[in-house]
Write a structure and sequence with these properties.
By secondary structure, this protein is α+β, with helices and mostly antiparallel strands. The chain has one domain: Sandwich (Jelly Rolls). Helix content is about 35%, strand content about 30%. It is built from three helices and ten strands. Strands 1-10-3-8 form a four-stranded antiparallel sheet. Strands 2-9-4-7 form a four-stranded antiparallel sheet, with no helix packed on it. A two-stranded antiparallel ribbon has the order 5-6. α2 (about 120-130) crosses α3. It is globular, with a radius of gyration of 18 Å. The N and C termini lie far apart (about 55 Å).
């Protein structure tokens, strides 16, 4: 399946040559997921990044809120739906955290094909070729930064909504 995929369309490989991308392609494993199947859960140990090749996924985060002493509301909130046409990359947050845990749950909304790049393979390629590694890490940093900005905007909207409710 990876033969027909243009991996240059994925932000993690922005500004990489075909030969540079091929180094990562050779390490990828393509996995298929059925609609409604969980790809990974928030809190799982993360050791890879994912490139959505075909289908649509939903990213959710737990809305953990203490209702009373020892009683928590653990409902989840859909953060975003990602179709393969957007060439999304996800799972990148766990590559750099201290505890390497997933920060969200990702579920297939439709049948999906997903390329998986293992953290060890990613770092091995980047370390063996520092110029290539710099480009990839710059791209991953841009993805993480954009996601952080969006999360901060969502927190600001949420706190503003709570403030308005409390003023009434």
């Amino acid at each position: 399946m990876t033969e027909s995929v243009d991996f240059g369309q994925y932000r993690v490989f922005k500004d990489l040559s075909d030969d540079e991308i091929k180094q990562f392609e050779e390490m990828m494993e393509v996995k298929d997921y059925e609609a409604e199947q969980i790809i990974f859960n928030e809190g799982d140990i993360g050791d890879s990044i994912y490139l959505l090749l075909d289908g649509k996924v939903e990213i959710n985060q737990a809305l953990t809120m203490q209702l009373s002493k020892g009683d928590y509301d653990t409902r989840e909130k859909a953060i975003i739906n990602l179709p393969s046409e957007w060439h999304p990359v996800f799972g990148e947050m766990s590559l750099f955290g201290n505890d390497d845990k997933r920060t969200a749950t990702v579920k297939a909304q439709t049948d999906c094909a997903i390329a998986v790049v293992m953290k060890d393979d990613l770092f091995r390629i980047c370390e063996s070729n520092p110029e290539l590694g710099f480009k990839v890490m710059r791209n991953v940093a841009a993805i993480v930064t954009d996601n952080l900005v969006k999360a901060n905007q969502n927190i600001l909207k949420l706190t503003t909504a709570f403030s308005l409710i409390l003023e009434k």
